[in-house]
Amino acid sequence: MTRLNARSRLALPPRVRLWLGLLVALALGYLVALAQNAVVRPPLVVGQDAVPPAGQAPGVIATLEHEGGAFIDIRPAGEVKTLLVYYPGGFVRPQAYEWLGRALAADGVQTVIPVFPLDLAVTGVGRADALIKKFGAGRMVVIAGHSLGGAMAAQYATDHTAQLNGMILMGAYPAGNVSLKGAALPVLSLLAERDGVAASADVRDGLNRLPDSARLTVIPGAVHSFFGRYGSQKGDGLPTVTRAAAEVDILKAVRAFLRQLPAP
Description:
Elements: H1 2-10, H2 14-39, E1 61-66, E2 70-75, E3 82-87, H3 98-104, E4 109-114, H4 128-135, E5 140-146, H5 148-158, E6 166-170, E7 187-192, H6 200-206, E8 215-219, H7 243-259
Parallel strand pairs: 3-4, 3-5, 5-6, 6-7, 7-8
Antiparallel strand pairs: 1-2, 2-4
GO molecular function, one term: hydrolase activity
Protein name: Alpha/beta hydrolase
Keywords: Hydrolase
């Protein structure tokens, strides 16, 4: 009798069971959608949205290659003086940064952008190794990254400063347990003035874990998503300049940094 009374107290009315079932189904559907967005990535199409703001230098070639994994290889027509290894932001397709590589090709820069599993650089922090080994001999080697990719680039740099001539962080900063303090590595940190994802305070605090010579440059009116061409981003700020204007300022800062690096 006691067991029957307990069951009757636990029994829910049919209407309540129906709503609970609907809520559980909605929750499961939401989780499945999140998982699908993470696992099923948009297509990787080279060259579709990659023309720099001032146009492209003649003879630039961009192809999808494989060396320790897939990567986008952007080569100038003439002599290659610098190798730039670029780690994309989290869940951002690598072609979003192709515009930057095509623009820098005019300065003799070869840009290689690794394709990471799930578009997360944290899954392959050491991907730069094979690319530097293949392309870096006799050239200045710079590692760069946006957002999560920048944090992973900084992590890579902590154990590979001897292989690098410089590092560029875009809307990014080293993780709290990563420090390059005291390293003889030129570093450029770019901060979008209206960034709502990488907070200004966090980017500035990150300078405390970078070499004393690290240079911070603010991109006026720009937001986090202006470093790559992947559309708007949840939580980002509202820009006061166009994407094209921001890209011009980004290129100006990157070019100035690369030109002052000491030759290898």
